[in-house]
Amino acid sequence: MEKFAKELTGKLALVTGGTKGIGRAIADRLLEAGATVVVTARNHPGDENLKSYFIPTDLTIPSETDKVVREINKKFGTIDILVNNMGGSTSPSGGFAALTDEHWENDLQLNLQSSIRIDRAILPQMVEQKGGVIIHISSLSGILPLYESLGAYAVAKAALNNYSKSLSKEFTPRGIRVAAVSPGMVKTDTMGAYLQSLSDTSGRSVEEVTQDLMTSLGGVPMGRMALPEEIAELVGFLVSPRASYITGVNYIIDGGANPSF
Predict the structure, then answer these.
(1) Of the four listed, 51, 54, 77, 206, which is most buried by Cβ atoms within 10 Å?
(2) Are the beta carbons of 83 and 135 closer than 8 angstroms?
(3) pLDDT for 191
(4) 86 or 209, greater pLDDT
(5) Is residue 189 part of a domain?
(6) Which branch of life, at top level (predicted)?
(7) Count of Cβ atoms closer than 10 Å to residue 233 Cβ
(8) Can you give the CATH number for the domain in which 82 is found?
(9) Angle CA 5–6–12, to nearest 5
(10) Do both 247 and 212 map to the same domain?
(11) Together in a domain, 71 and 166
(12) Domain that holds residue 47
């Protein structure tokens, strides 16, 4: 693997939602591969060890998108790699009846529309340079929805999967590879807070609700959650020259939970 150590040298990468969890692990992985990495998030994590260039922004606000891209272009040049990692849900549990128009709109903005906007801002420069890679971080929920607690989020991620495929069909002939990555349960602070909230509302232990969640996915043969670094390793490969023939796919990385191929 030593010959691949700096395979992204000279490449400029943008990782949205890149200051913690999966996004942070991806940013660190691309840095290790030699890329210059810019990360965005709504707030700075206050981590002095953050090695990527940070731009505070809320990409659910349309005007913020062009501002971010202009700053990156001015400071670093054109973007070669885009990893759309922003996402999440603040919608309540309780199934369909618990969701208002605002809940649906918030989840669609964060998990779908924000990716579409940043793609729209960056694709022209990728087309001009006749190359680039776009990775959309989706979720197993987009394939196996958990209606009780993540209904709107799951619908948004399913739409992101379809959009990612559509984008790949249109832009791969122009030299731009597009793929999606759908993690299952990943051991992040956000997942920990989510499991704690389920524990608090149900009166059951975190261990019990974690097992229930794994069971609701059909069981996780690996018997554990993924580590953020394991997701990042897949993304690191997909954006590299070694994946030059890979486009238009959705990689499920879930410890074997998905019952289909």
Answers:
(1) 54
(2) yes
(3) 84
(4) 86
(5) no
(6) Bacteria
(7) 15
(8) 3.40.50.720
(9) 140
(10) no
(11) yes
(12) 2-184+226-253
Same domain, 146 and 214: no
Report yes or no on 98 lying in a domain.
yes
Distance separating alpha carbons of residues 63 and 109, to the nearest angstrom: 13
pLDDT at 69 (0 to 100): 96
Report the number of distinct structural domains present in the chain.
Answer: 2
Q: Which residues contact 162 (CB under 8 A, 6 or more apart)?
A: none
- Examine the domain organization and report whether 207 and 234 are in the same domain: no
In a domain, 11, yes or no: yes
> Beta-carbon neighbour count of residue 205 at 10 Å?
11
Domain assignment of residue 261, yes or no: no
Distance of CA 26 to the CA centre of its chain: 9
194-206 per-position pLDDT tens digit: 788 878 878 889 8
Output the CA torsion sign for 139, 145, 151, 157: positive
Closest to 18 in 3D by CA, of 91, 109, 81: 81
Active site residues: 153
Instruction: Find the distance separating the first CA and the last CA of the chain, reported in whole Å.
Output: 29
Q: Is the same domain home to 117 and 215?
A: no
Per-residue model confidence as pLDDT tens digits over 75-88: 999 999 999 999 88
Q: What is the pLDDT of residue 119?
A: 98
